[in-house]
Automatic annotation (TrEMBL), chain A:
This is PepSY domain-containing protein. Keywords: Membrane, Transmembrane, Transmembrane helix. InterPro entries: PepSY-ass_TM (IPR005625). It comes from Acetobacter garciniae. Coiled coil: none annotated.
Automatic annotation (TrEMBL), chain B:
This is DUF4175 domain-containing protein. It comes from Acetobacter garciniae. The chain crosses the membrane at residues 21-43, 49-70. Keywords: Membrane, Transmembrane, Transmembrane helix. It comes from the Bacteria.
C-alpha cells in the first residue's frame, strides 16, 4: 500500500467517524436501558394486573368465539377491531371501537382515542382487565415510563419520526464505512506491534491510539453486525411501504371495492385461527384483525403468523381468511427484503440467548463506547497540536509542558 | 485515529531492534470468527449447549481485552500485548 492510498483511507476513517460518532454515542448509551427494558419495567413499575386463576395444567383454552361474543355483549353496537392472544400469558386481548370511521377520525385529533381493549383469561373467558375509559383522569406517568420513552425515541428516531429514522439509518451506513476503513488502517499501524500492545510508558497519545486499536479489534465484528442490522431496521417504514404498494395491493385488488360486511354475519374467529395455523405450518398465529382495518381487506380476516424458532420468530406470514365464508384465501410469505429485515432484528436486539447474552451485549456496547471516546480523544488531541503549531509559527511562545513532547512525536500533526 | 502520520514515519524510518514485522491478522481474525460463531450459535442452535457456547465465544474477545489492559498497566515499561 502506498502512502497515498494509506492517507486516503485515513481521511475516509477520520471523516466517516467524525460524522457518525455523536449519533453513535447517543444510540450506544440509550441502547443500554432498552436492552434491559423488560427487567427495568418489572423492577420499577411492576405488574399490577390481578393474578391469574390457578387451574390444573393442561386446561384447554376457551373458544375465541366465546370470548368475542362476550366482548360484543359488553359493548353492544360497537365493532371488534382485533383479537390477540398474549405471547406468554394465558390471556387474550380484544380491541374494540365504536366504528372504523371513528378510528379513522381519531387521526385528526391528537387527544381522541375511541379504541379500547378488554383482556380476557384465555382459559375461562372471564374479563381480567379493561383499558381506562377515555373520560377517566389520565394515569400519572412514571419516571420509568418517561425515561424509557425518551431512550426509545432517541435511539430509533432522535425524536424526528421518519426523517430521524432515515437519518440514523444513514449514520449506521457511515459507521460501517468507518469500521471498514479503520480495519485497513489497523493492518498498517500494527505491522510492528504485537497484538494487544498498549504503550503506557510513552506519549499519552500513543496509549489512546493503542487502546482505540485494541478495543476496536475486539468488538469489530459485533459492531459491524449490530451497526448493519440497525441500519436495516431503520429502513423498515419504506420497506413495508414498498410491500404495501406492490404485493399487498396486488393481492387485495379483487376485493378493494367491496363493502365491509356487518360484524353480525361474519364467520367464526376460532375457525379462522385454526385455518391460518394449517395454512402456515410451523408458525404460530399471533393475532387477527377484522375486515375493514385500514391496512387490510374489507372482507377478510387478516391473521398474523410467525415462526416458532428464535431465527424465525420475527418472520411474519400474513394469512387471509374470507370472513364471509370462513374459507382460506391464502398465506403470503413476505418478499425477500422484508424477510431479510426481520431475520436481522434479533441480531440487533440481542434478545435471543437469555440474560447472559444481554449482559454480553451490554459489555460489548460499553467497549464500543470506549472506541468512540478514544477516537474522539485522538482527534481532539491532534487538533490541539495543530493549533499550537500555528500559534508558534506566528511567534507565540507556548510553554505548555505537555504539548511539546507530543508535538515532537507527532510532527506531521502540524500540517 | 489521527496519529497516522507519525506512525507511518516511525515504522518506516525507525531502526529500533524491536520493530521487526509481526503477523498482524491472526488475533483479529480469531476474535472475529469467535464473535461470528457466538452470534450465530445462539440464533441457530436456540438452546442447551449452543447457548452456552455462544456465551463463551462472545465472552472471549472481552476477556482478551481485559487481559491486554491488565498486562499493559502492570508492566508499564513493556509494551504489554500478546504474540
Amino acid at each position: 500500500m502506498t502512502t497515498r492510498t494509506l492517507r486516503r483511507w485515513f481521511v475516509v476513517h477520520k471523516w466517516t467517524s467524525l460524522v457518525c460518532t455523536l449519533f453513535l454515542l447517543i444510540v450506544c448509551v440509550t441502547g443500554l436501558p432498552l436492552l434491559f427494558s423488560e427487567q427495568i419495567w418489572d423492577t420499577f413499575v411492576g405488574d399490577d394486573d390481578p393474578p391469574y386463576e390457578v387451574l390444573p395444567p393442561g386446561t384447554p383454552n376457551a373458544s375465541l368465539d366465546v370470548i368475542v361474543d362476550k366482548a360484543r355483549a359488553l359493548y353492544p353496537g360497537q365493532i371488534i377491531t382485533s383479537v390477540n392472544p398474549d405471547d406468554d400469558e394465558p390471556a387474550v386481548l380484544v380491541s374494540m371501537a365504536p366504528s372504523w370511521q371513528a378510528l379513522k377520525d381519531d387521526e385528526n385529533y391528537t387527544d381522541r382515542h375511541s379504541g379500547h381493549w378488554i383482556k380476557f383469561d384465555a382459559r375461562t373467558a372471564k374479563v381480567l382487565e379493561q383499558s381506562r375509559p377515555t373520560d377517566a383522569p389520565k394515569e400519572p406517568r412514571t419516571w420509568t415510563g418517561i425515561i424509557m420513552g425518551i431512550c426509545n425515541r432517541l435511539h430509533t428516531s432522535l425524536f424526528a419520526y421518519l426523517p430521524g429514522r432515515l437519518f440514523l439509518g444513514a449514520m449506521g451506513g457511515v459507521f460501517v464505512a468507518s469500521l471498514v476503513s479503520g480495519t485497513v488502517l489497523y493492518g498498517r499501524f500494527m505491522k510492528r506491534l504485537p497484538f494487544g500492545s498498549v504503550r503506557t510508558d510513552r506519549a499519552s497519545r500513543l496509549t489512546w491510539l493503542d487502546l482505540h486499536n485494541l478495543l476496536g479489534t475486539a468488538t469489530l465484528v459485533w459492531a459491524l453486525v449490530v451497526g448493519f442490522t440497525g441500519f436495516v431496521n431503520e429502513l423498515q417504514t419504506p420497506l413495508f411501504g414498498l410491500w404495501r404498494v406492490t404485493d399487498v395491493r396486488q393481492i387485495l385488488r379483487p376485493y378493494a371495492n367491496l363493502p365491509v360486511p356487518s360484524q353480525d354475519h361474519l364467520s367464526s374467529v376460532q375457525a379462522a385461527f385454526d385455518t391460518a395455523a394449517k395454512a402456515a405450518p410451523g408458525n404460530e398465529v399471533t393475532g387477527l384483525s377484522f375486515p375493514g382495518a385500514s391496512f387490510g381487506s374489507p372482507v377478510h380476516y387478516v391473521l398474523w403468523t410467525r415462526g416458532a424458532t428464535p431465527l424465525r420468530a420475527r418472520l411474519f406470514t400474513p394469512v387471509l381468511v374470507d370472513a364471509r365464508t370462513g374459507e382460506l384465501t391464502g398465506a403470503y410469505p413476505m418478499p425477500w427484503y422484508l424477510r431479510f429485515l426481520e431475520i436481522s432484528r434479533p441480531l440487533h436486539f440481542g434478545d435471543y440467548g437469555g440474560m447472559p447474552l444481554k449482559i454480553l451485549w451490554a459489555l460489548l456496547d460499553v467497549v464500543v463506547i470506549g472506541v468512540l471516546v478514544s477516537g474522539l480523544v485522538l482527534w481532539a488531541g491532534k487538533r490541539k497540536i495543530a493549533t499550537d503549531a500555528r500559534l508558534r509559527a506566528l511567534g507565540y511562545d507556548l510553554d505548555d509542558a505537555e504539548g511539546a513532547p507530543v508535538s515532537a512525536l507527532t510532527g506531521e500533526g502540524a500540517r | 485515529m489521527n496519529a497516522l502520520g507519525p506512525e507511518t514515519r516511525q515504522s518506516s524510518f525507525a531502526a529500533s531492534p524491536s520493530r521487526t514485522p509481526v503477523a498482524v491478522w491472526p488475533w483479529p481474525i480469531a476474535l472475529g470468527l469467535l464473535t461470528t460463531f457466538g452470534l450465530l450459535s445462539a440464533l441457530l442452535g436456540q438452546h442447551g449447549i449452543w447457548l452456552a457456547l455462544s456465551w463463551a465465544a462472545l465472552s472471549l474477545p472481552l476477556i482478551v481485552t481485559v487481559i491486554c489492559l491488565i498486562r499493559a498497566w502492570r508492566r508499564p515499561s513493556s509494551k504489554g500485548g500478546l504474540s
